[in-house]
Design a protein that fits this description.
This protein is an alpha+beta fold. The protein contains 17 helices and six strands. Strands 4-3-5-6 form a four-stranded mixed beta sheet. The chain has a two-stranded antiparallel ribbon with strand order 1-2.
């Protein structure tokens, strides 16, 4: 059994805050409006937690491990009358199970055009639900096999509501699969090898390294692969970059694949644009949730003078900003943004983020492990 240490509590609290703020987004409201039962409720909460693209991210599998796993654990746990402590144990188990499959499938899964969070999220949600239902190891494995039969989700949805909606579908399917397994539904081990053939990777190679140590808590509400470039832009501003100049951002190929957009028309698209997020930061400072309510015209214009290049000798966490203009060109390397395992958020930075999203209502939400999970769920549902 995975014990929910401080890292899991931090990630879960971060997700609670993201879901609290995300509930008012159009995609989340749409999902909630059609929710009629347990799995629909899980799906709606998963959409809310992911729609801002502010939720924690696991680099070695390029997946948002909390996005499908936390809502499954919280909604199922609340429905069964369990404590938040029990929910956290189930969440940690699902978190690590999802991470193992995501890690084993990376980077092939992503390079084939799949959305890893949506594909592997079925496993996280199924494992968390199985844990709360008290399923044994064999039944839990069956739950995961049934879960991946409904795996799906495409990178093509990035920059649209579809990205969070497919994560909601993954969470709901994982919950349903675990409940079916608990009722005696069967599957077969050959599903695991078939999954590997279809999506890439090998479950047997997943390993047991705790994923929580490599988990990012995001500092900015946009694609993780823009974050190092955003911090480089912050540094350029501090150094007096001439905004009449032009720039080049150099990143790893997979960072470019994750944030491929140069021209953007909506706030959601802007979250996946390196030129736009860099331009916005140069003009206005690092982006917040409100920054993506609409596209900023001045940032669009400046983004047109920012080129993105690829260099696979860089780590995927790195970005180099070269800025021409002013008395001397600037060249700034950021090895990893704040919130990364290399540069984790301080307690105060996390507190500031959570309060910016949920006010003070989540203060102490996870302090008492005996607290009913339903009470914590109610905090998220507050408007």
């Amino acid at each position: 059994m995975v014990e929910p240490g401080a890292g899991y509590r931090t990630a879960f609290l971060d997700w609670l805050a993201c879901a609290s703020a995300g509930r008012s987004e159009p995609a989340a409201m749409a999902a909630q409006s059609i929710a009629e039962g347990l799995t629909d409720r899980v799906a709606a909460l998963a959409v809310a937690g992911h729609v801002l693209d502010f939720d924690d991210t696991y680099g070695p599998g390029l997946s948002h491990l909390s996005a499908p796993t936390a809502p499954a654990a919280l909604v199922v746990g609340a429905g069964r009358g369990t404590s938040i402590g029990a929910v956290l144990v189930a969440y940690a188990a699902g978190f690590e199970a999802m991470a193992a499959v995501a890690r084993a499938s990376h980077p092939g899964l992503y390079q084939r055009g799949w959305h890893p969070t949506a594909v592997t999220g079925t496993v996280g949600a199924a494992t968390a639900t199985a844990h709360l239902h008290g399923l044994d190891e064999e039944r839990t494995r069956t739950a995961c096999q049934l879960a991946v039969l409904g795996a799906g989700g495409l990178r093509a949805a990035f920059g649209t509501d579809g990205k969070s909606i497919q994560v909601g579908a993954a969470a709901a399917h994982g919950v349903r699969a675990a409940r079916l397994a608990g009722q005696g539904a069967t599957a077969t081990g050959s599903i695991e090898s078939a999954f590997a053939n279809a999506y890439g990777g090998n479950w047997a190679e997943a390993g047991e390294t705790p994923a929580i140590a490599d988990n990012w808590i995001k500092a900015f509400p946009c694609c993780l692969q823009t974050h190092a470039a955003i911090e480089a832009a912050e540094q350029a501003t501090a150094l007096g970059a001439d905004l009449d100049g032009s720039g080049i951002v150099t990143v790893h190929r997979r960072s470019r694949q994750a944030a491929p957009l140069d021209e953007v028309a909506t706030g959601l698209e802007a979250k996946f644009s390196i030129p736009y997020t860099v331009a916005f930061t140069l003009l206005h400072g690092a982006p917040t949730v409100a920054s993506f309510a609409a596209v900023d015209g001045a940032a669009q214009a400046l983004a047109a003078r920012i080129e993105v290049q690829v260099d696979d000798t860089l780590a995927q966490s790195e970005a180099v900003l070269t800025w021409a203009g002013g008395p001397a060109p600037l060249e700034i390397l950021v090895d990893a943004a704040r919130g990364s395992p290399q540069h984790p958020m301080t307690d105060e930075q996390l507190r500031t983020k959570v309060r910016s999203l949920a006010g003070s209502r989540l203060d102490g939400a996870l302090d008492d492990p005996a607290r009913p999970a339903a009470e914590v769920l109610a905090l998220v549902d507050q408007t």
